[in-house]
Structure formats: structure tokens, C-alpha cells
Amino acid sequence: MSAPVAEGMSHGGEDDVALVVRTLAGDRAAFGTLVQRYEEPVRRVARAVLHDVSDADDAAQDTFLTALMKLDRYDRGGRSGRGCCGSRRT
């Protein structure tokens, strides 16, 4: 999977901001779409850092759970330039 393409983070379908808004409104399928979109890059980074597939998969799952719990903090304006794959420590 390729890296995010622009501020709106569209991957040929609905952009990340729209998916975040839908998720915050209770649409679980929208979050599933975000997970599918970013699962491979998140796992790839985790595996590169942890050097253990099982630990990396656990870390990736924790990453998505944390993202879901903090989704209301998502920077919809894209000013951070990090999209869903970045983090904001607030």
C-alpha cells in the first residue's frame, strides 16, 4: 500500500476526514475502512522497530485501539501533516 497522498488523505475513495467524522458519529464500518487503509503501513513500521512479528502485530492492534479512543482529537485541518498515521501528544 502506498503512503497517504495529500492533506485530505484520499486513497481513491472517501477521504480520511470524512471517515473520521463518520466514525465519531458511530459508524463502525468507517473506522474499519481506516484500519484497512493503514493496517499494512502500521504493521510494517512496528515490525521494523520490534523485530518480532507477534509483538509487532500486538503493537499495531494497540495503535488502532488507541487511535479509536482518541479519535476526537484528530486534526481535521491537516495542519500537522500527519493524518491518521501520525500522532498528537495532547
Please give a handful of descriptors for the protein shown.
90 residues; mainly alpha; 3 helices; disordered N terminus
Q: What general form does the structure show? A: elongated
Mean pLDDT across all amino acids: 81
The number of distinct helices, counting runs of at least 4 residues, comes to 3
How many DSSP-defined strands? 0
Query: β content, as a range?
Result: under 5%
Radius of gyration equals: 13 Å
Extract low-pLDDT stretches.
1-7
Task: Write down the secondary-structure element order.
Answer: HHH
Helix content: 40-55%
- The termini sit apart by 29 Å
Q: Which class of secondary structure composition applies to the elements?
A: mainly alpha
Structure description:
The chain is an all-alpha fold and 90 residues long. The protein has a domain at 16-72. It has three helices and no strands. It has helices at 16-24, 28-50, 53-69. It is elongated, with a radius of gyration of 13 Å. It starts with 15 loop residues before the first helix and ends in a 21-residue tail after the last helix.
Q: How would you summarize what this structure contains?
A:
By secondary structure, the chain is an all-alpha fold.
Question: Layout of SSEs?
Answer:
Layout: H1 16-24, H2 28-50, H3 53-69
Helix pairs in contact: 1-2, 2-3
